[in-house]
Amino acid sequence: MSPAIKYTLGRIGLFVGVLAALWPLDLDIFVKLMIALLASAGLSFVLLRGWRDQMAGQMATASQRRKAEKERLRAALAGDDEAAPKS
């Protein structure tokens, strides 16, 4: 499974878990949602560090690959024979 999907599902799961823990309390629903949002953000910073790092690494690799492809295409459009695809 993609690190981005794992991290996103982990964040949603933390939010739902905190909200479920707050549900029995006699508070306004808006207050419960805000507390759950803030608490899940803090917990995800600590608990989901590994998945966040994996996702960042995946995104950095994809960015580098896109940048290299973009430079190759620019060189090919400029007429640079070395950058042209080999057949």
Q: Could you please describe the fold and organization of this structure?
A:
The protein has 87 residues and is mostly helical. The protein is built from 3 helices and no strands. The radius of gyration is 22 Å and the shape is rod-shaped.
Describe the secondary structure blueprint for this structure:
Layout: H1 3-22, H2 29-47, H3 49-77
What overall form do the CA principal axes indicate?
rod-shaped
Which percent band covers the strand fraction? under 5%
Q: Distance N terminus to C terminus?
A: 35 Å
Task: Summarize the amount of helix as a percent range.
Answer: over 70%
Q: What labels would you give this structure?
A:
87 residues, mainly alpha, 78% helix
Short description:
By secondary structure, the chain is an all-alpha fold. It contains three helices and no strands.
